[in-house]
Amino acid sequence: MTKSPRPHVISATEGTSAPFLRGILTRSLQKAGLPFEEAFHIASMVRERLDERTSIPGAELRVLVAEMLGAAGHSSYREAYLGARQEAVRIRVLTSDGSDGPFSKSQLADSLEICALPREELHAIAARIEQDLIDEGTEEISTKDLTARVMEALKALPSESAAEDYQRWVRFSHSGKPMIILIGGTTGSGKSSVSAEIAHRLDIVRTQSTDMLREIMRLLVPERLIPTLHTSSFEAHTKLPSGLESSPTEDMLQGYLTQSSQVAVGVEGVLNRTANESVSLIIEGVHLHPQLMAQIANRFDFVVVPVLLAVLKEKRLKKRLIGRGHMIQSRRSERYIKNFDRIWDLQSFLLDEADEHDVSIIPNNDEENTVRSILQTVSNQLRLLYKSEDSAQQATTES
Protein backbone atom coordinates (compact mmCIF):
# COMPACT_ATOMS: atom_id res chain seq x y z
CA MET A 1 0.00 0.00 0.00
CA THR A 2 1.43 3.38 -1.09
CA LYS A 3 1.63 5.90 1.69
CA SER A 4 0.23 9.34 0.88
CA PRO A 5 2.88 12.12 0.84
CA ARG A 6 3.17 14.25 3.95
CA PRO A 7 1.55 17.69 3.44
CA HIS A 8 3.89 20.70 3.46
CA VAL A 9 3.33 23.99 5.28
CA ILE A 10 4.05 27.01 3.09
CA SER A 11 5.49 30.17 4.65
CA ALA A 12 4.38 33.18 2.57
CA THR A 13 6.76 35.60 4.34
CA GLU A 14 9.88 33.45 3.99
CA GLY A 15 8.98 31.72 0.72
CA THR A 16 9.81 28.29 2.17
CA SER A 17 7.97 25.04 2.86
CA ALA A 18 8.41 22.33 5.48
CA PRO A 19 6.60 19.05 6.14
CA PHE A 20 3.73 19.15 8.63
CA LEU A 21 4.82 17.35 11.81
CA ARG A 22 2.31 16.41 14.47
CA GLY A 23 4.98 16.52 17.19
CA ILE A 24 5.91 20.12 16.35
CA LEU A 25 2.28 21.23 16.51
CA THR A 26 1.79 19.34 19.77
CA ARG A 27 4.73 21.21 21.33
CA SER A 28 3.42 24.56 20.04
CA LEU A 29 0.07 23.87 21.68
CA GLN A 30 1.78 22.84 24.91
CA LYS A 31 3.70 26.12 24.89
CA ALA A 32 0.31 27.83 24.74
CA GLY A 33 -0.58 26.02 27.98
CA LEU A 34 -2.55 23.03 26.67
CA PRO A 35 -1.90 19.74 28.53
CA PHE A 36 -0.03 17.10 26.53
CA GLU A 37 -2.93 14.70 25.90
CA GLU A 38 -5.26 17.46 24.63
CA ALA A 39 -2.45 18.99 22.54
CA PHE A 40 -1.65 15.63 20.97
CA HIS A 41 -5.35 15.01 20.29
CA ILE A 42 -5.77 18.37 18.51
CA ALA A 43 -2.58 17.80 16.49
CA SER A 44 -3.85 14.35 15.46
CA MET A 45 -7.16 15.83 14.33
CA VAL A 46 -5.31 18.43 12.26
CA ARG A 47 -3.22 15.72 10.64
CA GLU A 48 -6.38 13.83 9.68
CA ARG A 49 -7.86 16.99 8.13
CA LEU A 50 -4.70 17.44 6.05
CA ASP A 51 -4.64 13.81 4.91
CA GLU A 52 -5.84 14.59 1.37
CA ARG A 53 -3.76 17.73 0.90
CA THR A 54 -0.23 18.14 -0.38
CA SER A 55 0.30 21.64 1.04
CA ILE A 56 -1.30 24.33 3.19
CA PRO A 57 -0.31 27.97 3.78
CA GLY A 58 0.97 28.61 7.30
CA ALA A 59 -1.68 31.26 7.95
CA GLU A 60 -4.45 28.85 6.93
CA LEU A 61 -3.00 26.14 9.16
CA ARG A 62 -3.05 28.51 12.16
CA VAL A 63 -6.70 29.35 11.45
CA LEU A 64 -7.51 25.61 11.23
CA VAL A 65 -5.79 24.90 14.54
CA ALA A 66 -7.56 27.86 16.17
CA GLU A 67 -10.95 26.61 14.93
CA MET A 68 -10.32 23.14 16.34
CA LEU A 69 -9.22 24.59 19.69
CA GLY A 70 -12.44 26.60 19.86
CA ALA A 71 -14.59 23.61 18.88
CA ALA A 72 -12.92 21.53 21.60
CA GLY A 73 -13.71 24.15 24.24
CA HIS A 74 -10.15 25.50 24.51
CA SER A 75 -10.83 29.14 23.58
CA SER A 76 -8.39 30.54 26.15
CA TYR A 77 -5.61 28.34 24.80
CA ARG A 78 -6.58 29.37 21.26
CA GLU A 79 -5.75 33.00 22.02
CA ALA A 80 -2.48 32.00 23.66
CA TYR A 81 -1.57 29.83 20.63
CA LEU A 82 -2.26 32.60 18.14
CA GLY A 83 -0.47 35.13 20.31
CA ALA A 84 2.61 32.92 20.65
CA ARG A 85 2.78 32.46 16.88
CA GLN A 86 2.58 36.21 16.36
CA GLU A 87 5.34 37.13 18.83
CA ALA A 88 7.81 39.49 17.21
CA VAL A 89 11.52 39.30 18.00
CA ARG A 90 12.01 42.64 19.75
CA ILE A 91 14.43 41.77 22.53
CA ARG A 92 17.68 39.81 22.53
CA VAL A 93 18.81 37.81 25.56
CA LEU A 94 22.59 37.81 26.12
CA THR A 95 24.15 34.80 27.85
CA SER A 96 27.29 34.75 29.97
CA ASP A 97 29.31 33.06 27.20
CA GLY A 98 28.63 35.93 24.79
CA SER A 99 25.95 34.25 22.67
CA ASP A 100 22.46 35.65 22.29
CA GLY A 101 18.96 34.65 21.24
CA PRO A 102 15.46 36.08 20.97
CA PHE A 103 13.43 36.68 24.11
CA SER A 104 10.37 34.40 24.22
CA LYS A 105 7.70 34.71 26.87
CA SER A 106 6.65 31.12 26.08
CA GLN A 107 10.14 29.83 26.86
CA LEU A 108 10.31 32.00 29.96
CA ALA A 109 6.99 30.57 31.17
CA ASP A 110 8.36 27.07 30.57
CA SER A 111 11.42 27.84 32.70
CA LEU A 112 9.09 28.78 35.58
CA GLU A 113 7.41 25.35 35.68
CA ILE A 114 9.67 24.25 38.53
CA CYS A 115 7.72 26.64 40.78
CA ALA A 116 4.72 24.25 40.47
CA LEU A 117 2.29 27.15 40.06
CA PRO A 118 -0.80 27.11 37.79
CA ARG A 119 0.24 27.45 34.16
CA GLU A 120 -2.00 30.47 33.64
CA GLU A 121 -0.12 32.29 36.40
CA LEU A 122 3.26 31.42 34.89
CA HIS A 123 2.24 32.72 31.46
CA ALA A 124 0.88 35.89 33.07
CA ILE A 125 4.22 36.51 34.83
CA ALA A 126 6.15 36.00 31.57
CA ALA A 127 3.76 38.31 29.70
CA ARG A 128 4.16 41.06 32.33
CA ILE A 129 7.94 40.86 32.16
CA GLU A 130 7.85 41.05 28.36
CA GLN A 131 5.53 44.06 28.44
CA ASP A 132 7.74 45.83 30.98
CA LEU A 133 10.78 45.32 28.76
CA ILE A 134 8.89 46.62 25.73
CA ASP A 135 7.59 49.66 27.64
CA GLU A 136 11.13 50.45 28.77
CA GLY A 137 12.41 50.24 25.21
CA THR A 138 14.79 47.40 26.13
CA GLU A 139 16.46 45.81 23.11
CA GLU A 140 18.98 43.61 24.94
CA ILE A 141 19.01 42.02 28.39
CA SER A 142 21.47 39.64 30.04
CA THR A 143 20.30 36.33 31.47
CA LYS A 144 21.45 37.60 34.88
CA ASP A 145 19.22 40.68 34.68
CA LEU A 146 16.33 38.64 33.30
CA THR A 147 16.64 36.20 36.19
CA ALA A 148 16.61 39.16 38.61
CA ARG A 149 13.35 40.40 37.08
CA VAL A 150 11.82 36.93 37.38
CA MET A 151 12.90 36.72 41.02
CA GLU A 152 11.33 40.10 41.75
CA ALA A 153 8.03 38.96 40.16
CA LEU A 154 8.04 35.67 42.08
CA LYS A 155 8.80 37.34 45.42
CA ALA A 156 5.66 39.44 44.98
CA LEU A 157 3.50 36.28 44.90
CA PRO A 158 1.68 34.92 47.96
CA SER A 159 3.69 31.69 47.60
CA GLU A 160 6.85 32.23 49.63
CA SER A 161 8.69 29.26 48.13
CA ALA A 162 8.25 30.09 44.42
CA ALA A 163 11.23 32.46 44.21
CA GLU A 164 13.47 30.08 46.17
CA ASP A 165 12.42 27.13 44.01
CA TYR A 166 13.23 29.07 40.84
CA GLN A 167 16.57 30.31 42.20
CA ARG A 168 17.62 26.76 43.06
CA TRP A 169 16.55 25.55 39.61
CA VAL A 170 18.65 28.25 37.91
CA ARG A 171 21.58 27.30 40.10
CA PHE A 172 21.18 23.63 39.21
CA SER A 173 20.77 24.38 35.49
CA HIS A 174 24.13 26.18 35.52
CA SER A 175 25.86 23.40 37.47
CA GLY A 176 26.16 20.98 34.55
CA LYS A 177 24.92 18.11 36.73
CA PRO A 178 22.46 15.60 35.27
CA MET A 179 19.09 14.98 36.89
CA ILE A 180 17.47 11.55 36.71
CA ILE A 181 13.74 11.42 37.39
CA LEU A 182 12.49 7.88 38.05
CA ILE A 183 8.74 7.35 37.68
CA GLY A 184 7.41 3.97 38.75
CA GLY A 185 3.91 2.60 39.03
CA THR A 186 1.82 -0.34 37.98
CA THR A 187 -0.08 -0.76 34.72
CA GLY A 188 -2.67 2.00 34.30
CA SER A 189 -1.09 4.47 36.73
CA GLY A 190 -0.39 7.02 33.99
CA LYS A 191 3.42 6.83 33.90
CA SER A 192 3.86 7.47 30.17
CA SER A 193 1.67 10.56 29.81
CA VAL A 194 2.92 12.11 33.07
CA SER A 195 6.54 11.47 32.06
CA ALA A 196 5.99 13.16 28.70
CA GLU A 197 4.48 16.19 30.40
CA ILE A 198 7.30 16.46 32.96
CA ALA A 199 9.88 16.18 30.16
CA HIS A 200 8.20 19.04 28.30
CA ARG A 201 7.90 21.32 31.31
CA LEU A 202 11.48 20.82 32.51
CA ASP A 203 12.89 20.76 28.97
CA ILE A 204 14.39 17.28 29.45
CA VAL A 205 14.94 15.92 25.97
CA ARG A 206 15.64 12.29 26.87
CA THR A 207 13.08 9.84 28.21
CA GLN A 208 13.28 6.07 28.45
CA SER A 209 10.58 3.49 29.05
CA THR A 210 11.51 0.22 30.75
CA ASP A 211 8.91 -1.49 28.57
CA MET A 212 10.88 -0.36 25.53
CA LEU A 213 14.07 -1.74 27.07
CA ARG A 214 12.29 -5.05 27.66
CA GLU A 215 11.14 -5.13 24.02
CA ILE A 216 14.71 -4.64 22.82
CA MET A 217 16.01 -7.32 25.17
CA ARG A 218 13.32 -9.70 23.90
CA LEU A 219 14.61 -9.26 20.35
CA LEU A 220 18.15 -10.06 21.46
CA VAL A 221 17.42 -12.93 23.86
CA PRO A 222 15.16 -15.83 22.76
CA GLU A 223 12.32 -16.94 25.01
CA ARG A 224 13.87 -20.34 25.66
CA LEU A 225 16.82 -18.64 27.41
CA ILE A 226 14.99 -16.03 29.52
CA PRO A 227 11.26 -16.85 29.37
CA THR A 228 10.23 -14.28 32.00
CA LEU A 229 11.22 -11.43 29.65
CA HIS A 230 8.63 -12.52 27.11
CA THR A 231 5.45 -11.75 29.03
CA SER A 232 3.89 -8.95 31.05
CA SER A 233 5.16 -7.99 34.49
CA PHE A 234 2.07 -9.34 36.26
CA GLU A 235 2.21 -12.66 34.35
CA ALA A 236 5.97 -13.30 34.50
CA HIS A 237 5.46 -15.85 37.30
CA THR A 238 3.83 -18.21 34.77
CA LYS A 239 7.29 -18.65 33.19
CA LEU A 240 9.02 -19.57 36.46
CA PRO A 241 9.81 -23.18 37.40
CA SER A 242 6.79 -24.81 39.07
CA GLY A 243 6.79 -26.75 42.32
CA LEU A 244 7.28 -23.85 44.74
CA GLU A 245 4.84 -23.88 47.65
CA SER A 246 3.73 -20.26 47.91
CA SER A 247 0.58 -18.17 47.56
CA PRO A 248 -0.62 -16.82 44.17
CA THR A 249 0.38 -13.30 45.25
CA GLU A 250 3.87 -14.42 46.26
CA ASP A 251 4.23 -16.23 42.93
CA MET A 252 3.20 -13.10 41.04
CA LEU A 253 5.64 -10.92 42.99
CA GLN A 254 8.48 -13.38 42.45
CA GLY A 255 7.85 -13.29 38.71
CA TYR A 256 7.68 -9.50 38.73
CA LEU A 257 10.93 -9.13 40.68
CA THR A 258 12.66 -11.65 38.41
CA GLN A 259 11.67 -9.71 35.30
CA SER A 260 12.56 -6.38 36.94
CA SER A 261 16.06 -7.62 37.78
CA GLN A 262 16.52 -8.63 34.14
CA VAL A 263 15.31 -5.27 32.80
CA ALA A 264 17.53 -3.53 35.37
CA VAL A 265 20.51 -4.59 33.26
CA GLY A 266 19.18 -2.38 30.45
CA VAL A 267 18.43 0.42 32.89
CA GLU A 268 22.02 0.29 34.14
CA GLY A 269 23.27 0.62 30.56
CA VAL A 270 21.11 3.70 30.02
CA LEU A 271 22.38 5.25 33.26
CA ASN A 272 26.02 4.55 32.37
CA ARG A 273 25.50 6.32 29.05
CA THR A 274 23.83 9.20 30.88
CA ALA A 275 26.79 9.47 33.24
CA ASN A 276 29.23 9.61 30.31
CA GLU A 277 27.25 12.30 28.50
CA SER A 278 26.10 14.20 31.62
CA VAL A 279 22.55 14.78 30.37
CA SER A 280 19.30 14.75 32.30
CA LEU A 281 16.89 11.89 31.76
CA ILE A 282 13.46 10.59 32.73
CA ILE A 283 13.04 6.83 33.10
CA GLU A 284 9.54 5.47 33.59
CA GLY A 285 8.16 1.99 33.91
CA VAL A 286 6.62 -0.68 36.09
CA HIS A 287 10.05 -2.30 36.54
CA LEU A 288 11.30 0.69 38.58
CA HIS A 289 10.28 -0.62 41.97
CA PRO A 290 11.31 1.51 44.97
CA GLN A 291 14.18 -0.75 46.08
CA LEU A 292 15.74 -0.44 42.61
CA MET A 293 15.22 3.34 42.74
CA ALA A 294 17.07 3.49 46.06
CA GLN A 295 19.94 1.43 44.62
CA ILE A 296 20.22 3.81 41.66
CA ALA A 297 20.29 6.84 43.97
CA ASN A 298 23.09 5.29 46.05
CA ARG A 299 25.16 4.04 43.13
CA PHE A 300 25.15 6.94 40.68
CA ASP A 301 26.37 10.47 41.31
CA PHE A 302 23.24 12.10 39.90
CA VAL A 303 20.50 14.23 41.33
CA VAL A 304 17.97 11.40 41.52
CA VAL A 305 14.26 12.11 42.00
CA PRO A 306 12.29 8.88 42.56
CA VAL A 307 8.47 8.90 42.60
CA LEU A 308 5.80 6.24 42.54
CA LEU A 309 2.48 6.97 40.81
CA ALA A 310 -0.58 5.21 42.18
CA VAL A 311 -4.32 5.05 41.59
CA LEU A 312 -5.61 4.35 45.09
CA LYS A 313 -9.22 3.45 44.31
CA GLU A 314 -9.95 0.07 42.73
CA LYS A 315 -12.84 1.31 40.60
CA ARG A 316 -10.80 4.21 39.24
CA LEU A 317 -7.85 1.98 38.32
CA LYS A 318 -10.14 -0.56 36.67
CA LYS A 319 -11.80 2.20 34.66
CA ARG A 320 -8.40 3.45 33.49
CA LEU A 321 -7.35 -0.04 32.45
CA ILE A 322 -10.52 -0.44 30.42
CA GLY A 323 -9.98 2.94 28.78
CA ARG A 324 -6.32 2.15 28.06
CA GLY A 325 -7.32 -1.12 26.44
CA HIS A 326 -9.82 0.60 24.16
CA MET A 327 -7.18 3.09 23.00
CA ILE A 328 -4.84 0.30 21.94
CA GLN A 329 -6.84 -2.84 21.26
CA SER A 330 -9.88 -4.35 22.94
CA ARG A 331 -8.32 -7.71 23.85
CA ARG A 332 -5.74 -5.91 25.99
CA SER A 333 -8.58 -4.46 28.02
CA GLU A 334 -9.91 -7.95 28.61
CA ARG A 335 -6.49 -9.17 29.71
CA TYR A 336 -6.07 -6.26 32.13
CA ILE A 337 -9.44 -6.89 33.73
CA LYS A 338 -8.82 -10.63 33.90
CA ASN A 339 -5.58 -9.93 35.78
CA PHE A 340 -6.87 -6.97 37.77
CA ASP A 341 -6.34 -8.65 41.17
CA ARG A 342 -2.70 -9.27 40.31
CA ILE A 343 -2.24 -5.67 39.14
CA TRP A 344 -3.85 -4.40 42.35
CA ASP A 345 -1.68 -6.69 44.50
CA LEU A 346 1.41 -5.50 42.63
CA GLN A 347 0.50 -1.87 43.34
CA SER A 348 0.03 -2.70 47.02
CA PHE A 349 3.52 -4.24 47.07
CA LEU A 350 5.01 -1.17 45.38
CA LEU A 351 3.30 1.13 47.88
CA ASP A 352 4.74 -0.84 50.81
CA GLU A 353 8.20 -0.72 49.21
CA ALA A 354 7.91 3.01 48.59
CA ASP A 355 7.11 3.58 52.24
CA GLU A 356 10.08 1.47 53.30
CA HIS A 357 12.57 3.21 50.98
CA ASP A 358 11.27 6.78 51.40
CA VAL A 359 10.09 7.11 47.80
CA SER A 360 7.43 9.79 47.27
CA ILE A 361 3.99 8.32 46.55
CA ILE A 362 1.93 10.55 44.27
CA PRO A 363 -1.75 9.66 43.69
CA ASN A 364 -2.59 10.20 40.01
CA ASN A 365 -6.23 11.26 40.08
CA ASP A 366 -5.74 14.41 38.00
CA GLU A 367 -2.78 14.77 35.63
CA GLU A 368 -2.23 18.49 36.19
CA ASN A 369 -2.13 18.06 39.98
CA THR A 370 0.10 15.01 39.57
CA VAL A 371 2.56 16.93 37.41
CA ARG A 372 2.65 19.78 39.91
CA SER A 373 3.30 17.33 42.74
CA ILE A 374 6.25 15.84 40.87
CA LEU A 375 7.64 19.32 40.14
CA GLN A 376 7.37 20.10 43.84
CA THR A 377 9.19 16.84 44.62
CA VAL A 378 11.97 17.92 42.25
CA SER A 379 12.16 21.26 44.08
CA ASN A 380 12.31 19.49 47.44
CA GLN A 381 15.19 17.32 46.20
CA LEU A 382 17.12 20.40 45.06
CA ARG A 383 16.43 22.05 48.41
CA LEU A 384 18.01 19.08 50.20
CA LEU A 385 20.93 19.01 47.76
CA TYR A 386 21.88 22.64 48.18
CA LYS A 387 21.24 22.66 51.91
CA SER A 388 23.73 19.80 52.22
CA GLU A 389 26.27 21.42 49.87
CA ASP A 390 26.00 24.82 51.54
CA SER A 391 26.41 23.29 55.02
CA ALA A 392 29.50 21.39 53.88
CA GLN A 393 30.97 24.53 52.29
CA GLN A 394 30.31 26.56 55.44
CA ALA A 395 31.95 23.91 57.62
CA THR A 396 35.01 23.94 55.34
CA THR A 397 35.23 27.74 55.49
CA GLU A 398 34.95 27.81 59.30
CA SER A 399 37.63 25.15 59.72
Task: Give the end-to-end Cα distance, rounded to a whole number of Å.
Answer: 75 Å
β-strand number: 11
Strand content: 5-15%
Query: DSSP helix count?
Result: 16
Number of domains: 3
Rg over alpha carbons: 24 Å
Helix proportion of residues, in percent?
55-70%
Structure at a glance:
By secondary structure, the protein is of the alpha/beta class.
Structure description:
The chain is of the alpha/beta class and 399 residues long. The protein has 3 domains: 8-85; 92-173; 179-398, P-loop containing nucleotide triphosphate hydrolases (Rossmann fold, 3-Layer(aba) Sandwich). It has 16 helices and 11 strands. The strands form 3 sheets. Strands 8-9-7-10-11 form a 5-stranded parallel sheet, sandwiched between helices. A 3-stranded mixed sheet has the order 2-1-3. A 3-stranded mixed sheet has the order 5-4-6. Strand 4 (92-94) and strand 5 (100-102) form a beta hairpin. Helix 1 (22-31) packs across helix 2 and helix 11 (248-277) packs across helix 15. The radius of gyration is 24 Å and the shape is globular. It starts with 7 loop residues before the first strand and ends with a helix. The model has no long low-confidence stretch (mean pLDDT 86).
Q: What are the key terms here?
A:
399 residues, alpha/beta, Rossmann fold, 3 domains, 3-stranded mixed sheet, 11 strands
